[in-house]
Specification:
Layout (H helix, E strand, L loop, with lengths): L1 H11 L1 H10 L9 H26 L11 H30 L40 E2 L4 E2 L5 E3 L4 E3 L4 E3 L4 E3 L4 H21 L1 H9 L5 H33 L4 H6 L19 H10 L23 H27 L9 H6 L4 H6 L9
Antiparallel strand pairs: 1-2, 3-4, 5-6
Helix pairs in contact: 1-2, 3-4, 3-7, 4-5, 5-7, 6-7
């Protein structure tokens, strides 16, 4: 009965439903179990790599292995110098993916408030919107009581509408949306690098355990387990990261890939197109930011507000405005060349013949006529 009353109350007062959703974002401790599992996996794999691979290389082989060469020590230092920054960036991106809100419809903007059915604006969508109902009406959320911007979807887990929602990820206890997609993308990027680093470099320790029959069982088990886990995660995360690279290059989200792909015609292959495609360079900048120096750093925010997006129509309108501006400037430059300022382009013949603009003649001194 309480759940029904809460649902009715949320429909009657959407703002209270939004406030309760915000308060309960991290209010379910059981949903932190996937996050705890990821933290345990990172800690376990990192500890195995440091203790069973880097440690023996730096200590010359350890107590249970044959002495290693001086080159192995230098190799261990180089691998450690690469592993520590990669893991640090991975942890920072993971924390920012969890704590950064993906973005939601603003409460203080009246144009997103859901109006009654008798209001005219409830039937007509603004020209800037690309996603509308089949009837031409604006999309709205019955749980949040607001109109939906383009690429916005309601997440039932987060209990709010997410701007440019990609998907809900239980491993970060958060939705992947407009404002935290870069951190999620970099999380995959550094996870791929870290897992491949462990998988390829730790193969040396696995071979050493196989060749040395005096290796303790615990050392051999941990080394094999770490190598197997690193290979499994490397393959899995690489495939997932490859998918998101493909989506980024086509300016599509996971939801748009699953639900809004162009249906295949008879005898033709299925194609995936997006009206928000800005080209390879524009799509990368839309995700990683306009500053190239900050692309691989977990900082900065994407350009825009997540409520409006550049598409074919808006890009055409901007091109037309740019062309009009260029024509206007060209016309002004032509007028200035025809009527130059004082001291440029005025000749005695033009003044005498009266070909100059009357306004220019009023603001310039007259020249005496030469005798014939």
């Amino acid at each position: 009965m309480d759940s029904k009353q809460a649902a009715i109350g949320s429909l009657l007062d959407p703002s209270s439903a939004l406030d309760s959703a915000k308060r309960q974002r991290f209010g379910e401790p059981i949903k932190f179990l996937p996050v705890a599992f990821v933290v345990a996996t990172i800690s376990c794999l990192g500890s195995i790599y440091l203790c069973q691979h880097i440690g023996p290389l730096l200590s010359g082989g350890g107590s249970f292995q044959e002495p290693l060469s001086r080159a192995a020590e230098h190799r261990g230092l180089m691998e450690l110098a690469v592993f520590v920054p990669l893991t640090t960036m991975l942890i920072i991106c993971y924390v920012r993916s969890i704590l950064t809100h993906p973005g939601e419809i603003p409460d203080d903007d009246a144009k997103w408030e859901y109006l009654p059915r008798d209001a005219k604006s409830a039937f007509t969508a603004p020209l800037s919107l690309q996603e509308v109902k089949k009837s031409g009406e604006r999309r709205h959320c019955k749980w949040c009581g607001k109109y939906k911007p383009d690429r916005c979807h309601h997440c039932r887990v987060c209990k709010t509408c997410i701007l440019k929602m990609d998907h809900h990820c239980p491993w970060i206890y958060n939705c992947v949306g407009y404002f935290n997609y870069k951190y999620f993308f970099l999380l995959l990027f550094y996870s791929v690098l870290d897992c491949h680093l462990i998988a390829w470099t730790m193969a040396e320790s696995v071979k050493r355990c196989i060749d040395n029959f005096d290796t303790p069982f615990s050392t051999m088990f941990l080394t094999f387990f770490g190598e197997t886990l690193a290979i499994f995660l490397a393959v899995l995360v690489t495939m997932f990261f490859g998918l998101h690279i493909w989506l980024m290059m086509r300016s599509m989200s996971t939801i748009e890939f699953c639900e809004k792909s162009t249906p295949a015609k008879e005898g033709s292959a299925k194609t995936y197109d997006s009206v928000y495609d800005l080209g390879a360079w524009g799509n990368i900048r839309a995700i990683l930011g306009s500053n190239v120096l900050l692309w691989l750093l977990p900082m900065g925010k994407p350009d825009g507000d997540g409520l409006t997006f550049v598409c074919d129509e808006t890009r055409l309108a901007k091109d037309m405005e740019t062309a009009k501006g260029i024509r206007r400037k060209t016309h002004q430059a032509t007028q200035r060349s025809r009527h130059p300022p004082y001291g440029f382009g005025a000749t005695e013949s033009s003044v005498a013949s009266g070909s100059l603009d009357p306004r220019d003649r009023m603001s310039r001194p007259s020249f005496p006529e030469r005798p014939a």
